[in-house]
Amino acid sequence: MKILLTGGTGYIGSHTAIDLIENGNDIVIVDNLSNSSKEVINRLNKITKTKVPFYESDIRNKSKLEEIFEQEKPDAVIHFAGLKAVGESVEQPLKYYSNNLETSLVLLDVMSKFDVNKIVFSSSATVCGTPKKLPITESDQAGVGITNPYGWTKFMIEQILTDIAAANPNFEVTILRYFNPVGAHKSGLIGEDPNGIPNNLLPYITQVAVGRLAKVGVFGNDYNTPDGTGVRDYIHVMDLASGHTAALNHSKPGVAIYNLCSGKGVSVLELIDAFSKAAGKSIPYEITDRRPGDIAASYADASKAKKELNWQTVYSIKQACADSWKWQSNNPNGFAD
Ligand code: NAD
Ligand code: UD1
User: Fold this and answer.
1) Catalytic: 96?
2) Could you read off the pLDDT of 47-90 as tens digits, one per residue?
3) Which ligand has its closest atom nearest to the C-alpha of 202?
4) C-beta separation of 225 from 287 below 8 A
């Protein structure tokens, strides 16, 4: 199968590219590099010992995207491209609605024109809002209590895909709701490289470990959780990657939604501890105020993906920490090194 990856030079797309190639697929990447580096392609070529076709283009540039479809003739699309910084989406909502919705609308239009009927979409745990019960399942009501424009774009795109599938009986949609991706490819050649100060916990920890930041702020220790700090469902990015390959292999007409998660909750202090052990160095931290909008705990039930996609996580938190450390210590300044 030939798969077009929008946003494929980003963190999750680049790791998924490896899994797809290792499982015998051809890929083509389209990315405008607004949040990634062209160096990713060199690294992918090295890891996979292939030459990954890459087009530097904005998905919203429809005529260019049509040219790429004409040239590459993909069988399926994985749609990673989008902006993802929650805080920025609150400050600049139009930027988020415009980029995330327009990329999806242009892409779907071009797919329809070229009769490409298979799509896997990068959605997020954030569409589940504040969960009424844990673990979260796919049948829990989504779209209630979403607290930011980023999350709304994900929910709206889920709805758009659902409506298109209802109108076109040949259309195959898989919506993957990612929980908290962590880790890196075992080579240490690619990994997460956020712009500016990281918003997310593990990249913050790795930048403290490498000396770019002084200490981790632990956002509250008075939550109703075992140690009082926030609990999340961390998933190794290579497990997430294999979830995409499984989704494509099991794709069928209609809409299927899966949580890609480990099923286990890990607290902030537990993650700091696991990382300290993996990196062999202590990580300074201090307890600070809660971050506005944060919830106490979020973890999900992974059994639907196991049953229907024959997919499950294989990597531990320990491995994710070791792989993140390998990436960050080999590339202290990310792809700028
Ligand atoms: P990322 O920012 O590393 O990758 C996204 C890629 O999309 C970037 O390379 C960026 O340059 C590209 N892009 C953005 N707008 C584009 C446009 N208009 N045209 C072409 N390319 C464009 O993010 P990621 O962590 O790899 O996330 C991938 C997808 O998964 C995103 O849709 C994100 O919202 C979603 N997601 C991520 C997380 C997470 O915690 N990382 C969690 C849930 C969902
Ligand atoms: C993030 C996204 C959310 C997405 C989810 C899963 C943000 C603000 N939200 O949230 O939309 O659905 O991932 O992909 O990016 N923490 C600290 N100190 C830090 C950073 C984080 O203590 O410096 C804590 C947080 O309070 C939380 C945990 O660590 O308890 C994880 O935080 P983070 O990595 O930002 O992920 P989410 O809050 O789950």
Assistant:
1) no
2) 999 999 999 999 999 999 999 999 999 999 999 999 999 989 99
3) 2
4) no
**Best CA proximity match to 67, nearest among 30, 101, 96:** 30
Query: Measuring from each residue's beta carbon to the nearest atom of ligand 2, which residues come in under 6 Å?
Result: 86, 124-126, 178-180, 199-201, 204, 216-219, 230, 232, 268, 291, 294, 298
Angle, helices 149-167/102-113, rounded to nearest 10 degrees? 20
Please list the residues that pair with 26 across neighbouring strands.
2
Averaged pLDDT score across all residues of the chain:
97
pTM of the model: 0.98
Categorise residue 269: left if φ over 0, alpha if ψ from -120 to 50, beta otherwise: alpha
Q: Which residues contact 294 (CB under 8 A, 6 or more apart)?
A: 219, 220, 230
Question: What is the SS3 assignment for 102?
Answer: helix
State how far the Cα of 271 lies from the Cα of 201, in Å rounded to an integer.
9
Distance 25 CA to ligand 1 centre (A): 21
Residue 322 backbone zone (phi > 0: left; psi -120 to 50: alpha; other: beta): alpha
Ligand nearest to the CA of 96: 1
Q: What is the number of the ligand 1 atom nearest to the C-alpha of 60?
A: 18
107 alpha carbon – ligand 1 mean position (Å): 15
Q: Give the distance (Å) from ligand 1 centre to CA of residue 82.
A: 4
At residue 182, φ and ψ (nearest 5 deg) are -145, 170
Expressed in percent and rounded to 5, the helix, strand and coil fractions of the chain are 40, 20, 40
Q: Residue 69 burial by CB count (10 A; 0-12/13-18/19+): exposed, middle or buried?
A: buried
Q: Is the pLDDT of residue 225 over 80?
A: yes
CA 121/CA 176 separation, integer angstroms: 6
Cα separation of 202 and 27, whole Å?
Answer: 29
Ligand 2 geometric centre to CA of 177 (Å): 15
